């Protein structure tokens, strides 16, 4: 048995990885009975398959990458898709515009005048998203799976926004968040509103055409969520669905359209695609004997807190459903404190980026231990203001593009890599136990038989442990404020 420990230190906003070979000794040779300060690994106790990690190729990310010179873009893409990169396995792409688009747009400009969608076109996607996406696919040594997600149907099919469901009621009255005064009389792509039932069939047909168009472009679409953030009426592209409405749409319109187009069983359908605190209730309201076979999995976001127990209960109640984190990001501009850059606190950019990285590691560990199979970050990259996008403000990402279209990665990128580089697609999560709560830990057994244990120490003091595994002992130090991956071969 051989063991290496990879530790990522941070200083001045930069990550410093350090790899050390660690001796493995028989527990029988220990001078005294080993009880305290122990982390246990149980390779024979296995749980879910961990299928991989990924991010989102939004129009924002694709635009920024497309503006780089060829060598810089290649380097940036290699950071995600290259052999030494973060081993991106899954990519999320929005269907029509989202908040991370340069402007609002649809693939059919006037579906009322063109109910048969004869003018359907991916010309907007072909401008930025598809060329960069294809470049990434060609670079990757591993097969990539694409998740498509809609943010809103065309405005002409929707009801106007409802006051009780407006953005402030969901997110609070946050400074700088609202784009403009909401027009409660006119339907739009933004500020919520709901799809009118008389257009359910049209929307199902539209989504089906969209998925097939991406497949015809050679994009390996294997997943589609029914709606991004089903109950959030954001001031960007959004649409509000009740669980019952979405159930009717899925059962009576979308799935039959998928069957007719030959997509059923080829492109898995995901429900919820919103924050974890309601994933169980939403699944319970939608999944029944009729819809169960139509749904491949449950997608969820992280913006309402941990709720690892909700994820675990959903997995137990619906065994066989894929559990997928489909979006997460720090809710502030790169290196700045507060929602969309509003707020003080006196923190340095380095402190903010460290806190982001810790939040990512904590959430990934918690979700994996709760049964998560797939994990997808939000934007692959943004600019220094968290954009560009067609609404004000912006959020951070693990790659920041500078004004001259050079780029930098931050500590979050390195922390994600502790999972994505060493927990390989097809790994099985294994049993583990801790002696205290000073570190957080998850562990997995890879298809090649190697074991990766990821240990987060967010304390201000170093921690020392003895890892016990199958009669062997590995003594490690988890340095203060670091993330470590222990690889055992």
From TrEMBL:
Q: Which Gene3D superfamilies match?
A: Glycosidases (3.20.20.80), Golgi alpha-mannosidase II (2.60.40.1180)
Q: What Gene Ontology terms describe what this protein does at the molecular function level?
A: hydrolase activity
| Domain Glycosyl hydrolase family 30 TIM-barrel positions | 50-423
Question: Which Pfam families does the record associate with it?
Answer: Glyco_hydro_30, Glyco_hydro_30C
Going by the UniProt record, its keywords in alphabetical order are:
Glycosidase, Hydrolase, Signal
Q: Tell me the ranges covered by the Glycosyl hydrolase family 30 beta sandwich domain, including all copies.
A: 426-486
Family to which the UniProt record says this protein belongs:
Belongs to the glycosyl hydrolase 30 family.
Name-wise, this protein is Glycoside hydrolase
Q: Which organism is it from?
A: Neglectibacter timonensis
Lineage here is: Bacteria, Bacillati, Bacillota, Clostridia, Eubacteriales
């Amino acid at each position: 048995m051989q063991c290496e420990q990879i530790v990522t230190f941070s200083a001045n906003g930069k990550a410093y990885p350090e790899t050390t070979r660690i001796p493995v000794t028989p527990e029988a040779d220990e001078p005294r009975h080993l009880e305290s300060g122990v982390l246990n690994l149980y390779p024979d106790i296995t749980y879910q398959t961990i299928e991989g990690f990924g991010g989102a190729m939004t129009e924002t990310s694709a635009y920024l990458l497309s503006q780089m010179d060829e060598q810089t873009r290649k380097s940036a893409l290699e950071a995600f898709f290259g052999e030494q990169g973060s081993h991106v396995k899954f990519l999320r792409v929005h269907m029509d515009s989202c908040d991370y688009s340069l402007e609002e747009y649809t693939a059919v400009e006037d579906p009322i005048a063109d109910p048969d969608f004869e003018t359907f076109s991916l010309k907007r996607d072909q401008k930025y998203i598809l060329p960069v996406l294809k470049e990434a696919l060609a670079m990757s040594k591993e097969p990539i799976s694409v998740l498509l997600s809609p943010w809103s149907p065309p405005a002409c099919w929707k009801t106007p926004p409802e006051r009780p469901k407006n953005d402030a009621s969901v997110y609070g009255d946050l400074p700088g968040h609202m784009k403009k005064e909401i027009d409660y009389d006119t339907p739009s792509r933004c500020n919520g509103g709901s799809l009118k039932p008389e257009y359910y069939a049209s929307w199902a047909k539209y989504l089906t055409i969209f998925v097939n168009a991406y497949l015809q472009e050679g994009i390996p679409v294997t997943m589609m969520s029914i709606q991004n953030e089903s109950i959030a009426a954001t001031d960007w592209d959004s649409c509000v669905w009740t669980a019952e409405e979405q159930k009717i749409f899925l059962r009576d319109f979308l799935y039959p359209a998928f069957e007719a187009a030959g997509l059923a069983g080829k492109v898995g359908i995901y429900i919820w695609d919103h924050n974890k605190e309601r994933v169980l209730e939403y699944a319970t309201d939608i999944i029944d004997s009729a819809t169960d076979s139509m749904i491949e999995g449950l997608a969820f976001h992280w913006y309402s807190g941990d709720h690892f127990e909700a994820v675990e209960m959903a997995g137990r109640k619906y065994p066989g459903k894929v559990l997928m984190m489909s979006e997460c990001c720090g809710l502030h501009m790169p290196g700045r404190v507060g929602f969309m850059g509003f707020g003080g606190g006196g923190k340095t950019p380095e402190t903010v980026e460290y806190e982001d990285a810790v939040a990512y590691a904590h959430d990934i560990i918690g979700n994996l231990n709760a049964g998560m199979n797939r994990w997808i970050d939000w934007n692959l990259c943004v600019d220094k203001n968290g954009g560009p996008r067609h609404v004000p403000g912006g959020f951070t990402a693990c790659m920041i593009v500078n004004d001259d279209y050079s780029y930098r990665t931050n500590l979050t990128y390195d922390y994600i890599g502790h999972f994505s580089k060493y927990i390989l697609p097809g790994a099985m999560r294994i049993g583990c136990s801790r002696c205290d709560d000073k570190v957080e830990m998850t562990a997995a057994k890879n298809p090649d038989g190697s074991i990766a244990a990821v240990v987060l120490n967010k304390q201000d003091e170093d921690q020392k442990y003895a890892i016990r595994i199958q009669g062997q002992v590995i003594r490690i130090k988890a340095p203060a404020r670091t993330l470590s991956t222990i690889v055992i071969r």
